[in-house]
Automatic annotation (TrEMBL):
Protein name: Tetratricopeptide repeat protein
Family annotation (InterPro entries): TPR-like_helical_dom_sf (IPR011990)
Biased composition (Low complexity): 10-20
Annotated region (Disordered), positions in chain: 1-33, 94-121
Amino acid sequence: MAPTPPAASPSPGGRAAPRPNTAFREVRGSRSPAEFAAAVRRAAREIGEQVSCDARYVGRVESGEIRCPNYAYERVFRHMFPGRSLEDLGFQPRASVRGRGGRGPVPGAPPDARAHGAGAPPPPFPELFTVAPGAPVPAAVPRPSCETPEESDVLRRAFMTGSTAAVAFAALTPADAAASPRRAGASDAEAVEAAVRTIRLHDDRHGGDDLYRRAGRELRTAYALLDAGATRRSVTDRLQVGAGELALSVGWLAHDSGRLEDARSHYAEALATARVAGDPALEAHAFCNTAFLARDADRPREAVRAAQAAQQAARRLSSHRLRSLLALREAGGLAGLRDHAGCAQALLRARALFARGPADDDPEWMSFFGEAELEGLEAQCWSALGDWRRAADHARQAVRLQGSHFVRNRALFAAQLAGDLARAGEFEEAAETGRDVLALLAQVRSARIRAMLDGTARALAPHRHSAPVAGFLALRGS
């Protein structure tokens, strides 16, 4: 391994300058950046991945501008360099950059904290907001190398109690605001960005129910910091975008836990923030979530309008994967309107855009959007159109392709598959798949997934004479 490079020096704007990735430069060896990029593309094809690697991307990695690759690049690098972790290749742990643009390290995390993985020491449980000087720091909770359901529950409770947002919020009391309010600085912007990363990491693993109330308090703190004003315009800009992304994360937690009106309010708040900030990426994200919510709330026409507005905002961006997801959101609304031809056309457009591959400018929040998600969202469209067998085929693919990290999505796609199979008349396979979902619900808290499983149980109830069906219903308590 390459020697640890020196610590990054602060840039004129107060942020740490990128730290060159000397370890990655070493593995490139004598090959030119263009030759190495070609080798990366060949390795991607060997494992069925698509990456748009070129000499510029290699240069950005080696300069430290790209601190952690997206999941597609990670799979390719692991294929090229078996036995080496991302940290061995000079990258930072994903947990420290999981958020919009990965703007900074998680506050309170030690510099040698490593991503969860084989052979890596467990990092401390991340805190959401930086603790004020002299404030008590909650004890760190180590992440186990392999989470059991009991350990997952410990982590969820630690997340709920370990945040120090109350300390940050206490600094912005009404009395202080009336006299001499504390103006937000760069560390406050970093804290808001870290909150977004932490919430997304835990939602990937556990779903929305347990996180929603706590995250709502973090959101109020973020907007209080924004209202107090900032020391510099650059900090205000970061706070605006960070607060908007946090509103979307909290809105999604509300959405996933069945609080649809709360989600609608948070998404509207994020959209207003995006408009004030003049940020097309945040605006596209807000409309994307609004479209998804409208579909789930049985407002398909609103879903179509929101998805089309998101696509309009995304025209100013260069992410084919984002446009693919937005086409899928439009397809979902059209399916709800029973527009078979329009839905099929939107699905074809989504697949064509997806096939163009990932890009360096793909939003970080879209790290969940891979082939499994594409299949799962298409399954939902065919299910809404009543084509159960076709829906089941796509849902089965989604379950097969979904990586183990996204536990909530594994449960979601399996629940989708169970429902489609039950309505297609494949009662025993539906029951067996439903049992798999019940096992995953020991780790995931999602009202949305439970509601899907309720529908499956109702569809299977008349067929309880089948032993697998009876076993599933008994396990579920029906």
